[in-house]
Design a protein that fits this description.
The structure is a single chain. The chain is mainly beta. It has one helix at 78-87; strands at 15-20, 26-28, 30-46, 53-72, 95-102, 108-125, 136-142, 145-148. Strands 1, 2, 3, 4, 5, 6, 7 and 8 form an 8-stranded antiparallel β-sheet that branches.
């Protein structure tokens, strides 16, 4: 990774590379997002001395982080097979990997560690007979944790 001096610059990426547990890297053309959520829960209490009702928001249920990526289908079937292992509940379907956001020259601009990741959703979509477009595959990984490196 290159170090920059001065004010932080916005990251631009030309491709996204994911590597899991020593498997060959998988290249994606689009990162739809990395998301993590903590639900807000409303808490209502009465002050014992004054009787005033107090409404506050507290930390609620957490949702595991997800990473959604898109690429052209390459015919390997690797992600569908991995998704099938997750659907079957196999413990080895959880993997640790790295997501790199690379510029056009292949230089990493940002890196993330994906812990306990598994493909919870795979979509191959929007096909038309006779069209010359690339068949796209969208994969959503659910992770135990996503850590910037």
């Amino acid at each position: 990774m290159t170090m920059q001096t001065g004010a932080p610059q916005a990251i631009s990426a030309a491709r996204f590379v994911v590597s899991f547990d020593g498997a060959a890297p998988t290249y994606f053309s689009e990162l739809s997002g990395i998301s993590s959520e903590v639900e807000a829960t409303e808490y209502i209490a009465a002050n014992a001395r004054t009787g005033d009702v107090v409404h506050t928001k507290q930390f609620g249920k957490t949702k595991p982080p997800t990473v959604t990526l898109k690429r052209g289908v390459d015919g390997t079937g690797f992600l569908l097979a991995w998704h099938a292992a997750a659907r079957a509940g196999r413990p080895d379907a959880r993997k640790t990997g790295t997501l790199e956001l690379q510029n056009a020259a292949g230089v990493p601009q940002a890196r993330y560690r994906l812990l306990g990741a598994w493909p919870n959703k795979v979509e191959i979509g929007n096909l038309k007979a006779g069209a010359s477009e690339i068949v796209m595959e969208t994969v959503t990984f659910t992770c135990e944790e996503v850590i910037p490196l």
